[in-house]
Amino acid sequence: MTFKQGIFYQIYPRSFKDANGDGIGDIKGIISKLDYLLQLGVNYIWLSPVYASPNVDFGYDISDYFSINPEYGTMADMDKLIAEGKKRGIYFVMDLVMNHTSSEHAWFKSSLDPNSPYRDYYFHRPGKGNKLPNNWTSFFGEKAWSKNADGTYYLHLFAQNQPDLNWDHPMMYEEFKKIILFWLNKGIKGFRCDVVNVMCKTDLENGKNRLFLKGLEKYQSTPKNHMYLKRIHKELIEPNGAFLVGETVMINTQQANDLLGTESEKELDMMFGFEHMDADQFLVKWFKRKFNPDKFNRILTKWQLELPWNANYFENHDQPRSVSRYGSLHYHKESAKMLSTVLLTLKGSPFIFQGQEIGMTNVDYKSLDEYMDIETKNIWALAKKLWIPKFYRWHMIKTVSRDNARSPMQWDAKGGFSTGKPWLRINHNQTIINVEAQTDDGNSILSYYKRLIKIRQQHPVLIDGDFVPLVIKKGVFAYHRVLGNQKILVVVNMSSKYRKFKHSMDGEILLQNYPPLEMKRLRPYEARIIEVQNDQV
Ligand SMILES: O=C(CO)[C@@H](O)[C@H](O)[C@H](O)CO[C@H]1O[C@H](CO)[C@@H](O)[C@H](O)[C@H]1O
Ligand SMILES: [Ca+2]
Known about the structure:
Blueprint lengths: L7 E4 L15 H5 L2 H7 L3 E4 L3 E2 L11 E5 L6 H13 L3 E7 L8 H6 L12 E2 L19 E3 L5 E3 L15 H14 L5 E5 L28 H15 L5 E5 L5 H8 L9 E3 L8 E2 L1 E5 L4 H14 L4 E2 L9 H4 L6 H14 L3 E5 L20 H12 L4 H11 L2 H4 L28 H5 L5 H14 L2 H4 L1 E8 L2 E8 L2 E8 L5 E2 L7 E5 L8 E2 L4 E5 L6
Bound molecules: 6-O-alpha-D-glucopyranosyl-D-fructose and calcium ion (CA).
């Protein structure tokens, strides 16, 4: 099973399954659900960080890359998880954070001493007069520098507890070589590389004036970044038959192709782009605009046509739930199935985020203290400072907060996630949206995902076929996948209105999310996968 043939499933361990009743998901909980993932048809699990961490950014602030966060279990549990997965033909992709560590990491603690050999593992710099070393701002809407006790400052593109690593330091590659080989030797098959295209800084001079992410041009996909990715892929990944999927922010298709490298000098094997995620925002994600499906589908089509292979996703632990964002709660089942139809028939590796397979929605929290995400709390405070009225601040976090994705998995109607009090409240709609209710219901979203994954595995055209656009109009999105004499037509309606579709839909219907009906019009959020005659060959 190559990464190109596999179905990927992302687990956010803190919210997946709690096995010891402390309200926090853990590795034993994941082991207990491997058969569920096997039945769903999953081949690879991307595991968000389980390393030791003070949890300021819930794992994306790593204090020790060689040990497991005790809340999630032990290294023995991790070895068992990998072994139990292997028994079922399910392999693991670890999350690798190379841009920053936790400020609790031994390297950083030691680096606070100016004479420490670790001093230049980070960017400790003196201020300029009473000013910060430069004007850069962080991804979490703060200044990108924080003060050390000795009056100097250190750089952090994310939270102040996530100091950036200095990849100009000759030891940095050696350190991550040890980390990568440690986990590859444990039998994992690949890495999801966190914000992997911001980790090398050309210099620390002031950045151009821009509303958000001042300094971006100083660290986005720099030449040194490309050099390190080539080296990691050639010296560590290829010799171990592994692969890299990169989280690559703020890039266009040209920059994406550069980050794929070349046949002889590979960098990333695939990556998560963000252009489709930005289709429903003004400037930044906090200012939402009405979802325009045609804009969304034009962006998807561009990436389908301009990249040889994509890592396709509509959800992850940083994004709101797709059925709430791109679908409809009124047509909950139909729209969740429609979105999955596109996700699993686009060219590239499909990534399903935990709970997406049952149509989990954005959370129904009523007050700020129900939210746990540092970025959400930062933005609330920043918006308050900017005099944004309370009703709109509330609208911002309700629609955009990352906690929309992180509420505990809904296994059954009354708390299958944990016997204890969950670390983050479960959505009250677990009474109707849960795995147990959908498992034996042939018409459920879960059953649809299972059939869809089978169809994908049985039709090589859906894996290796060319993507041939046909229609993007008024919410209708249609395209062919073509491989030799195999040809499949995918037609979906991403709107709540009935829509005309004038092209032929003759052929064998492999799957649809509505009962069959001889009709030229598409019903709200309708989706059809049709095997058609390939009259071109
Ligand atoms: O959610 C975002 C900002 O609003 C994204 O830009 C996100 O910060 C960015 O995609 C990087 O995300 C990754 O690195 C972060 C820092 O490690 C971590 O908080 C995210 O969870 C992770 O996916
Ligand atoms: Ca637990």
